[in-house]
Fold each of these.
Amino acid sequence: MVTLEMPPSGSGPARLTLDGELVIQGISELRSKLIETLDGLPGNIPIEVDLSEVESIDTAGVQALVGMLRHVQSRGGYIEITHHSPSTFNATEVFGLQDTLGVGRI
Amino acid sequence: MDEGKKAFLAESSELLEDMESALLLVEASEGRDKEALNSVFRAIHTIKGSAGVVGIDNVEKFAHKVESALDLMRQGELRPTPESIGLMLECRDHISTLISVAVGQQKEMAYTIAEQVRLIEALEALMGEKGGPEEEIIEETVEEDEGTGFRVASDNWHISLRFSPDVLRNGMDPLSFISYLGGIGNIVHIHTMLDALPSLADMDPESCYLGFEIDIETKADKAAIEDVFEFVREDCIIHILPPKSRISKYVNLIGSLPEDRYRLGEILMQGGAVTERELAHALEIQKAGSDKNIGDILVDEGIIHKPVLDAAVQKQQGQPVGSKAVEASSIRVDTEKLDALVNIVGEMVITGASVQQEAAQIKNARLLQAVSSMARLIESLRDSAMRVRMMPLHDTFGRFHRTVRDICHESGKDIALEIEGGETELDRTLIEKIKDPLMHLVRNAADHGIEPQQERASAGKPQRGTITLRAYQETGDIIIEVQDDGKGLSKRKIEQKALERGLIERERAAELSEAEILHLIFMPGFSTAEEVTNISGRGVGMDVVRRNIEALHGSVDIQSAEGAGTTVKVRLPLTLAIIDGFLVSVGETSFVVPMDMVVECIELSEQARRDSHGRDHVNLRGSVLPYISLRDMFSASGARSSLEHVLVVRHSGMKTGLLVDRLHGEVQAVVKSLGKVYKGAKGISGATIMGDGTVALILDVPALVKKALKMQAR
């Protein structure tokens, strides 16, 4: 449910794609996977997150997304969510988190 | 510990101390000292407020109870009797425990919880006697607010939600509740509180960390809104404010939420729940009701932008910004920063010394002049830096009022505590470390020294016993005396006990002087208390007191007259960080002797040394002076000089000589600890780095004097 694509030419942002269900069931695995993936990235390579394949998300999933952003930002890295799916977009709206999770607004 | 809690801990321990001394004043004046009662109230009120801000709910709730009782006392509905004051003191202690638990300095124990239940019951019983339940009081204040009729203009409902961490695990999803809420009205604004949400690595992903502030435009009534959250009622704290609520409702809401109140205010404003003007008014009410120190914490924490707030308030009040800053005559400084400053000054003293050495070789008059004025400045810089670390002993002494009061209540004795020389200043670190030994001495004096009233009366003494705490300076040392006018120490009993415990041999007992017998009580394993009482004599004896004091380079002495009282005299150095020393060397090794212990220097010729026949004594103007050869003691290398010197040092009235090769004169030494490896090294108390970069060892003169005396005894 977490896929990482490194930039083809060696420069530019890495692309992190999340898919499937970002819900409380399996949230611990998602968390470990995300930490493992993010910490495995070289240096402070910028990260673009694609959520367009996410089928559903709940509060736990939203928390994990914000936690992920903070994880990267706290070590000085750059991360932004570039694509939303209808469900992640809806959750963002309901929670009024456009400023935090909004496209290109991080 | 985060910054907010750290600041809270520092602030609250000061406030708790204030509260204690003010409570004692209230008791002493039998409630006539209204100002003291007010300051007790202010202290608890501030603690309550700050605890709420940093999110220590337990302290906030408990402090609230105490505050209610104090309020009754302030209104004259509850009499400040020794019992009620005693209860307040217990509550104070309990808050102190709660805070230590909350900041993680102490583990929570079942006892703490039981104590809290007991205290709350006692408080309620106390309040039950006089005045109604506290809820009524709150209602009254709300009613008053209604009178002023200040209401917000907003037509929307405001809903404030804080979910419990378990809500997700219990199968509830706040997302769906809020979506559903959107179905019964138009959500004008929602702010998700992410404050408590940690970074991914620190997160328990199944816990909920979120809170929400929602403004909704709806025709539904309060019950309908509550129904939305019916299934999560157990897992959620919910506040619902109807349109055009009284501003006081918002004030209460802000006060009850865990987040920073100013930020909450901004969020409310963004959502249109309150206007800027209303917010300023609400914050004013909040400010009036609490101490400004909370604001300081928040500024420290970096959460609020004080100028912004001040400006907002100023707009309403026409009050100049920054007037508060003028009031404060002191600031709180982290001890770490202070230590860093002292450290740098120390390095500067060293560097200054090396510059001076170099300049002396260049022999340029103008350079020498400049260097000498620099040296003078460095010296005064050093003195100022040291003075920053100095604190008067007054506060430390003052805390023993409580100790003595408690002992009086437990034992039925009547004891007055007198304080002399409280303005005497001592290094902060020393003050911290001397508290416990002093506490032990004061308890000893009150428990074992002062007799019960009847016994005193029959001995023809005033019924009220007196313990005097006295501090003064004497030749570069600070002396602290704990004196009581009690029964004194029985030399016969001490001797007997020491014999029983095998601390002395029977044959030697007769030879001991009175002073030596008294000193036996500092031996490990000695306690004269015939029964172990609650107050002292818990197996921690005077030997521990002595060891603690000696660890601070101090010494302790005791004088006692049977029937008339006992005086324990503690001698402490002014500071431990920088000393004036005398530099000597043996072969290639340099030593520093603390200057205040140096008496004089004499030459020891080859001839004189031979005259002493290897017994290491020297004739000092007719009297015999034992000396220690530092060369032998520290196995120093290098050739022995033909003309050696004896440095005469003195400690607690005893003189000893130190045999060295060369004398170099006065130096300022920045004391560096030797670290763990050399901690056990006998005769050395530290090290210092000299101007030329070499290391000199600082001699532990008290230990050397003792060693010389032992040699002499043999």
Amino acid sequence: MANTITTSDFKKGVALIWKNEPYVIIDFQKVNPGKGSAFTRTKIKNCQTGKVIDITFKASEQVEQADLTRKKAQYLYEEPNSYNFMEQDNYEQVSIDKETLGEDGKYLKEDLEVYILYYNNNPISIDLPAKISYKVIEAPQAVKGDTSSTATKFITLENGLSISAPIFIKENDLVRVNTDTGEYIERCSTP
Amino acid sequence: MQYNTKNIKARAKILKTIREWFHKQKFIEVETPILVDYPDLSPNFNILSANITNLNKQKKYLITSPEFSMKKLLASELDKIFTITKVFRGKEENTNIHKTEFTMIEWYRKNMDYIDIMKDTENLINYLRLIKRKKSSTTYPRIKISYIFEKYARIKNVEKLSLSEFRKIIFAKNYSADKKLTYEQCFNLIFLNEIESKLPKTPFFLIDYPSELACLAKLKKNNPFIAERFELYINGVELCNGFSELTDGKEQLARFKKENVERQKINKPMLPIDYELCEKLNLINRAGGNAIGIDRLIMILLNANSIDEVMLI
């Protein structure tokens, strides 16, 4: 029998099962509708798809806890349909389908350290660092005469990722990227 | 704590204007007790009690609303009464729109029903908005509960569902697995999960609640599944609870007894029944009334983000 928790155990980051899929609580609030009983309005994020939904539970509802584990791993290489990592505590290689990682896959670069999230011992997603630095391998010259400070251009990074960046960025620069939004943050001198 | 003097002054002005509006309509302001012998029996309420007893060594309770005292007064010669009072709800968590202790304006009109009281509510709020130089008088749409349940949750004739049918729907939708769900919990699990977020942000009345959700309200003459109850929503916040009052003392007594049975089922203490109220209800022919959470109303009028900004708590 799986472990259950009640709404009074709810905390940000607690994992639970909703309609057979694992979710993590990202926010919750108690509500008392007029003359009604107590409920807990909960914002939960699907561990696999990242989709956020709102579910309101009755206070003290029993909810199944999700068996989730997080392991530190290093990104190794890409294959046509998967990404390959190495778990850092036992050097075991783990392969995750590209489909499973979705958009997160495009931020991977060799030797990047990530956390792999396992649900019932199957890898379902990765936690990327919030910011990652990349070497610029392609940065076209800015159009002459375009001197406005907000002007941007597309640059290509070492892992093939293409982002929009300010026009002063040159090849071989290091730039930091927000892995949540995919946006350029800053130029940096060290990774 | 840091007091927000600007909001204290604005609150004072709103309270003054509310009283002004009621006096203009020839209402009598009454001061009702906060400590009472007979609290509301609603199974969902956790009634706070004071550490004092009356001469008969009975416990004193803090009111959740002044309703019982107001109705007893209505049985006298008074026709139009209002009160502004503090009320208390135990074990309800403080949030940005709710506090354990809050202020309520409650009023009653004899020989009127919920249609008239909705009109009052609109007129009062329009009057308050005028002093804020906001939009002039508007009418708020009346939306029936059965309509929104069918439209957003695809549940037809929600008021006619039996408890076991309602539970089945909840289990199928995975909102709960609790075999002891009450009717009110089933109703609110659907309302909170599938309906509330889709309702307009502009003001509207929700009307005609299932009879199970209105212990003190009158049922519709031609449809005993529906109670003549309404709530007003502004900016998605529930502001009031009003209805055509149940004035049949015998029926009221039966409903109170049923509530005590419900309380027992969920391991809450049974509470003393106000027999005097039940008797006096028979002296009232027809009446309508409403209670507005004043702090929420002030919050909306002042565009505050949290109830703390407009309360001294």
